[in-house]
Amino acid sequence: MAFAGYDRMVEHWYSQAEISTSKPQALDRLQSALGFGGLIHSYVELALDQDRDAALRAEASLRSARAALRQYRAAGVTLAEAEAVAIIGDALERYEIAVAILAAAARTDLAPLPLSAVPTVDGQAAIQALADLVQATEATVGQSITGTASRLREVGLLAVPALLLVPALVVAAMALVWFQRTLLRTIVSQARTASALQQSRLHLTRAQAMARLGSFDVCAITGSAQWSAEALRILGLTVEETRPGTNALLGAVHPGDRARVAAALRGATDRGSAFSIDYRVLRPDGNECIVHHEGERIEDDGTRSPLIVCTIQDVTERHHAAAELHLRTRAMEAANTGIIITGPVDRDCPILYANPAFERLTGYAFPDVAGKNCRFLQGDDTDDAAIESMRDAVLSGRPVTVTTRNYRKDGSPFWNEITIAPVIDDNGTATHFIGTLSDVSVLKQAQIDLQQQLAFSRTLIDTVPIPMFFKDLDGRYRICNQAFARLAGLPTKDIIGHTVHDLLLPELADQQRAEDLTLLRGGGVRTYDQVIPEQCGRRRHETVTKALFLKPDGTIGGIVGAIQDLTDRNEAEKQFRILSRAVEQSPATVVITDATGAIQFVNAAFVALTGYSAEEAVGQNPRILKSGENTPETYVTLWRTISVGETWRGELLNRKKNGELFWEFATIGPIIDNDGAITHFVAVKEDITERKLFEARLRESEQRFKDFALASSDWFYEMGPDLRFIWFSDPDGKRTPQGGPVRHIIGRTRREIACNVDDEAFWAPHQADLAAHRAFRDFVYPVTAADGSVAHIRVSGVPVFDADGGFQGYRGTGANITTQVQAEAEATRARELLQDAVDSIADGFAIYDADDRLVLFNSHYADAMSTVRDLLKPGACFSELMTALVQRGDVRLPEGVTAEAWIQARLSERTTDRVQSAFETGDGRCVEVDEYRIRGGGRTLIRRDVTRAVRDAERRQALERELQQTHKMEAIGQLAGGIAHEINTPIQYIGDNLSFIVQSLTDLMAVITAHQQVADAAEREGRFEAVVATARAAAASADLDYLASELPSAARQSLEGVEHVSRIVRAMKEFSYPGTREKVLVDINHTLENTLTVSRNEWKYVAEVERALDPTLPPVPCLPGDLSQVFLNLIVNAAHAIAAKNGKPAAHDDSKGRITIATRQDGDWVEVRISDTGTGVPEAIQRRIFDPFFTTKEIGKGTGQGLTIARDIVVMKHEGVLTFETTPGHGTTFIVRLPVRNIGRTAQEAA
């Protein structure tokens, strides 16, 4: 870049100096001489880089410098200039030698040569010579530019490195001559040597790559380095990145290892110390690798600087493998389990390795047992079977695990769990064995303790008087105690391994097995009662409690159970229940207190009468019923009487919990124990208020049974205000929900007796009815019957209110409908089977009942009715579904038919036994529907997608119509051609006549003019005054001036009109001419002009036509008549669209629309664009405008075939593309693209 300053300086001189005949010549000399500067710069590049491009630039600069000197001498020089040229020429010769050597090295890819081996020049002398040239040129130019020489020196010094400015020649002048003569031989020899060296370097590079061993040399003085390709690959460096030498290496080293590597390199450089180190390298891709680096200083023979010769190898994998091996060794050393490795069998399996855990376990150190067999661990009581198992496994080369008793070095025994596994080589041979030893003494002792504990548990279970047993999942008894054996009447050995079917009657065994299966399915604990007939005729009542036995892994291991004989207790309880029932069901109030008067028991009558629950009354004093209406003397007498052991009888007026007063007749007496002490008092009281309220209760009773009549009739129930059962019509329990005693129901809510009490979602609606005191009917809920089965109960109920409107509870009926539910389940399964059969039908299938509501449908019907899927469910009305289909756009209505009319027609046609209908969906699919009347009422419906069949039929019809249209157009064309011929003939001779008239009028006017001149002359001379006057009068009457002005113009206009008519006729003839079915080359612009002419009457009143026709448009191979029809359809449609928007005709030119017709060539396609400013195409019909018979025009204005035919002509006949762009309300552009050549191209290429 420094030498560019010369050029800029010369250009400045040219612009500033006054040019004379000598100045340009001097400037040209300087310009030529300065070409030498380019040589210096190229030489520097070559010396530093020694690449091919630099060599080529240096040679080119050398040739330029030679030419520049020749030109300089030829221009004529002064003495000073000649001396400067001589110095430059001498330097140039030396440059030629240097450039040849460096260029040869660069071309043969030899290693870079040290600059000291390249001849140099006296750069200072060359620069001074350049300065002299500049001074001479300044003298010639006549200008004084101070400092030019110093600037040139500065520029030259910057351009030539200091190394090149060292005094020049290394070889003497004679050697230089010899060197020049032998240069060619040297270059040839170097080329051969370079080839051999290149082959050797290639082999070395491949060898280094295979060994992943790179090498490089570092100059001990300069720090520069020479790198092999493998070394660069290992370090992830490029040649450019290694120019800094060792700094490039240190830059790639991991920061944590960089100081260590730098120290090793310094030691080799300063002290000649060889080194071998491993360190980490950071590669450009972010990965880290480990390299092994060895280096050694090598002294040369004095001709070269000492070198640090280095090798570098990627040892990442080896390092990782060593680390992994070290980790495994450390893991074995740290293991708590004893590990040994032995040799092969043929060497008696000597111990080759033992870890520290082995020494801790056995007391033997590895040096003490190395090379020995492990028999030293055995003792007299070592298990022979275990030893034999280990021997067999070793001989067969398979793994084995045994537990045996071994002895430590100190003689102490321990239980040793030994696992032996073979080490198999690649040939499948067991070369070594690895064994692990674990002290399992604690576990072994635990097993012994467990066996003792099991024996103890067995003894303990046998002493339990309750029969107990354990059965496996197959129902076989595995454990039982002596009490169970006594109960079964069999010895234990005859029970173990047998099932209950072996011990009991078949019907009892089946019942117990069913209970077992219920427990296995449901889990938990199951308790049930059973009755076993004994041989003596006595029936034994038992309570059996069973539970699942779960293994530690959570799986079921069997069933444990216990049996309790309840025969004696049941008899006692029976007697007690009789007495208790007598008290409980007594209509009289019974209260039992202790000796202090604290209530211990109240019966249900007390609860019902007083409103106090048993929980509230127990623990209280009977004074809670005190109303304050009785006299104090009554209570004194009462207590005095009963305190002395006598019975008191009398009437008391008491108060209920709710504050209501009631009368009762009380009998109170003491209960005396065997010692004569009073322990309790018993009061039996009768509510005598009933007498006074008899009539009211009678009415209430009458209403109750009326309510029962309003409900169901199976059984009756009554619930209190708290919604708990207080009365049941079946005291024997034969028809109760659970089939058990009424007492199990009284006092409980309906939900509490159900088996799904926790199902909140199920009970929520019913609970809401009850909370709102609403009547309900046919509520069904499940209960568990006495036999364990699930029964389904249906209940109805009405709320009961008192005279004041207070809620008193519910009365109603209930029934067991289990059989009905089961029947409904069967019906459901049958319906599912029917549904599966319906789903197998390929078409959409549905069944509607007599009320026209959906009963059943398959998945294909659901898919076809996807737009109303949210309404498609059993019970949906057919008319509602049809209405939704229309409203949601899934039915494409015929033109002019309203949605209501279409739906009504669809419904009205469904009166016959079979109805067949068809319609088009919103997405263009064609649907055919077959309906059949069902004899018992209702209809079946089959819906098929017949789109493909309809489309095929439409295509066939379209082809037929097109053929008819073609014939029709051909006939019209023939007729139009004849008419055109008939019209054109008279038009031609009319035109000829008009031309003759024009010419005749011109001649006539000339004669008239001459006559006028005669008349004028006669008048001037005073003769023929009368004739002149007559002529003047006739001329005035005929208005010859007007005729002379207008008659030629009228004739010319007639000619123009005739020409216009002739053009129309020619255009009509060309348009209507059917032509041939073979394509011909046609001028599209001409065809468009003819079409505009023919259709002018359609557009001239509503629009102006703008033409943008490309005059360079190439001819297009096409069918001219068909293509004219396409353009005519598009232009007429454009005119109609503008008329629909603006009205027809337009009031004035400003209100007219615009039709723009443009043509252009686009590669191998010709494009015609016909645009209008009409209404545009609404978005709703854009996808349908090319459909056959689709039109937006009123009836009689269009057939709906224009665009369909146009697209068929463009796409099918010409392999082109017809598309449109539209903005609703602003206009539409139709685009026709036709191929110019390569007609076989697809329309996609055009698009």
Model description:
With 1247 residues, the chain is of the alpha+beta class. It has 9 domains: 4-170, no CATH class; 212-321, PAS domain (Beta-Lactamase, 2-Layer Sandwich); 335-445, Beta-Lactamase, CATH 3.30.450.20; 464-565, PAS domain (Beta-Lactamase, 2-Layer Sandwich), CATH 3.30.450.20; 586-690, Beta-Lactamase (2-Layer Sandwich), CATH 3.30.450; 694-816, 2-Layer Sandwich (Beta-Lactamase); 829-945, PAS domain (Beta-Lactamase, 2-Layer Sandwich); 962-1055; and more. The chain has 39 helices and 37 strands. The chain is flat and about 195 Å long. Mean pLDDT is 76; it is low at 1-24, 29-34, 109-123, 140-184 and 1239-1247.
Helix amount: 40-55%
Number of domains: 9
Q: How would you classify the helix and strand content by structural class?
A: alpha+beta
Oligomer: single chain
Name of the level-1 CATH class of the largest domain:
Alpha Beta
Strand segment count:
37
Approximate strand percentage: 15-25%
User: What spatial order of strands do you see in the largest sheet?
Assistant: 2-1-5-4-3
Cα shape: flat
From the 3D structure, determine the CATH topology of the largest domain: Heat Shock Protein 90
Which architecture name of the largest domain does CATH use? 2-Layer Sandwich
* CATH-defined superfamily of the largest domain: Histidine kinase-like ATPase, C-terminal domain
Describe the main β-sheet briefly.
5 strands, antiparallel
Low-pLDDT runs: 1-24, 29-34, 109-123, 140-184, 1239-1247
Count every helix, treating DSSP H or I runs of 4 or more residues as helices: 39
Mean pLDDT: 76
First-residue to last-residue Cα separation: 54 Å
* Spatial extent as radius of gyration: 63 Å
